[in-house]
Specification:
The complex is a heterodimer of chains A (about 575) and B (about 160).
Chain A lengths: L1 E3 H11 L4 E4 L6 H7 L5 E4 L3 H15 L3 E5 L3 H5 L1 H9 L4 E7 L15 H5 L5 E4 L6 H13 L5 E7 H5 L1 E3 L19 H13 L3 E5 L6 H14 L3 E3 L14 E4 L6 H9 L2 E5 L5 H4 L10 E6 L13 E4 L2 H13 L2 H10 L1 H13 L13 H11 L5 E4 L3 H9 L8 E2 L10 H11 L5 E6 H4 L6 H6 L5 E6 L4 H10 L15 H7 L3 E5 L2 H13 L4 E6 L24
Parallel strand pairs in A: 2-3, 2-4, 4-5, 5-7, 6-7, 9-10, 9-12, 10-11, 12-13, 13-14, 15-16, 15-17, 17-18, 18-20, 19-20
Antiparallel strand pairs in A: 1-8
Helix pairs in contact in A: 1-2, 1-7, 3-5, 3-18, 9-13, 10-13, 11-15, 16-17, 16-23
Chain B lengths: L1 E9 L4 H11 L6 E6 L5 E9 L2 H13 L3 E6 L5 E12 L5 H10 L3 E6 L2 E8 L1 H15 E6 L3 E4 L8
Antiparallel strand pairs in B: 1-3, 1-4, 2-3, 5-7, 5-8, 5-9, 6-7
Chain lengths: ~575, ~160
Amino acid sequence: MKMTGSKILLECLRLEGVETLFGFPGGTVINIYDDLVDSPIRHILTRHEQAAVHAADGYARATGKVGVVIATSGPGATNTVTGIATAYMDSVPLVVVTGQVPTPLIGNDAFQEADIVGITRPITKHNYLVKDVKDLSRIVKEAFYIARTGRPGPVLIDFPKDIQVATTKFDYPATVHLPGYKPTYSGNLRQVEKAVKMMLGAKRPVIYVGGGASSPEAAAALKQLAETLEAPVATTLMGMASIPKRHPLCLGMLGMHGTYYANMAVTESDLLVAVGARFDDRVTGSVPHFAPQASIIHIDIDPTSIKKNVRVDLPIVGDLHEVLNKMVAKLAEYPQEAARAREETGFWRQRIAAWRESHPVHYTPSNSVIKPQFVIEKLRELSAEDAIITTEVGQHQMWTAQFFDFCRPRTFLTSGGLGTMGYGLPAALGAQAAFPERQVIDISGDGSFQMNSQELATLVQFKLPVKIAILNNNYLGMVRQWQQLFFQRRYSQTVLDVPIDFVKLAEAYGAVGFSVSRPDEVEDVIRRAFAEPGPVIMEFKVEREENVIPMVPAGKALNEMVLSS
Amino acid sequence: MRHTISVLVENEFGVLARVAGLFSGRGFNIESLSVAPTLDPAVSRMTIVTCGDERILEQINKQLHKLINTIRVIDFTGQDCVEREMALIKVSAEEDTRAEVLRIADIFRAKVVDVAPRCYTIEVTGTPGKVGAIVELLRPMGIRELVRTGPVVLGRGPKAVEK
């Protein structure tokens, strides 16, 4: 039986196990939206295509599945760009389907035409223009395969309108044939052996974990490795939920706003085991001064990440789950050596404990004004252990990383690589769509929140009870902090001095809003918000000029932290 | 250091843009690039001449591999290989220089492929060094136009690059 391209697309999605789509209709996807009426797949209508991509991204990060987006051609497609770039930088599996003008019009500057394949080429793992309906099912199959395997990432399919109505016999391929795409999973056993020997010989080891260990399986293997060696673990922003913050070996985040003890430990380490991390400049600070005494083992599924930014003594290309399990198995063959290594590194853990004691993660509490860090501590205290936290980008994001004790994988969704303001609310929306019963909290600033605040409408329409905590300082706080520290307090365009009534804003969309300005009201308002069945904005009017510390100024070494503001 | 790299790619829509975009987006140099289908029309072979230190070349190699349409990447630097480039040179041929132009062409085993009243078009094939040398010798005669293909390269001996 022959089927239209549009129907074939939806059938392919169903066969890939897609239950939820995020998108926004338009002229060149109207056939798909018409067929969607008869499809079992749920569609969530965001109010902006950027938000649809962030929502699919939040859905993907929270579930580990591929997030799927539909947008129309031209402006619909270009609106997806920031979302796609965000997912690309953080290795999130997405399939984004954009409508395109009919093939005879491509290149003619037709109405709502944009060369989205050209535009997204450097920010997708791969992309396609469907030129023949006979290629469609193969392309969809490949797109999902590429998105979820190897180092995951977004794949875009540009789907012209005439191909959507063209018909062909539908046959979903069982396998893919991609001669140039064969990710390495297993990890070279001899390299693993060498790595284990290096770990057993290290006196001051540190494991440095990034977003590659975000799956529960990889996180479990990581924990086992760290515990076998009693090796301290520092995480990136993206690696944060891979090891419980309260775990005795966890040093918290390293880098620009990392903990004193994580940065000191990395600086003085003699062996750094990088696990699914890519030595971003926000992590390394000055590269020549980064871990200067350490040998570096780098485990990553993407060979291009290895030796890109720093020298590496022992590279291992492979899937973290497999490689870490092999390491743990190999270590089990050396029980005496492992016991000796644990003993010999005791003084190192004591040294780190001393740093932790002298320079804990801290802030100065106040009885008169709400400290943003206090709100985050209270949110942790009052939320469920499996609550999913999203953030926007800026000071509130760094305070969340510092003060929220994450304890499970896939519970911290934040734009790490691209640093996209406006990510958190739609990402929370996507996570809540995946897990209607779990608590989902967007921790936000007043600046970031306004970049996608229109999604309040989506929350209300689809009954997604996301709780939004806005830490309102009436500033673009992180830029203001830089201006204070490095530009003589010349607050150029960072003052948001408009008295926005966030309570009324929430109510205008049919959500609930609370606003507080006294520390003793914080706990009560969080309890009330969590008790509400629908979406809620909690506005906390916080200390306006609170700074994120410690801070390694850009280009400085990790041990050159500014410790007080 | 100069490197000559062969890249086997699936002969698909946009693949040249992917490779060229990779070089421009990551700030790698392209000195020359030539591309055409291989014996298997589904596969094209690109020859790219680039330069950079060891770290950059390692990244170029890995990043090229990372493209989904890339099947193989071979860096011929330091390997025994045949490297050839072709140039077409439109050079002035006045009464007093015509003989000299022909003599130079002859020395380089180049061919005159087009003759006009005061102008020859010369075809020359050889290593990039040889092509550069004839260009320098012809320059004083007045080169009106020059086009070079950029080098292509094959390893010496019976062994062939496999897909």
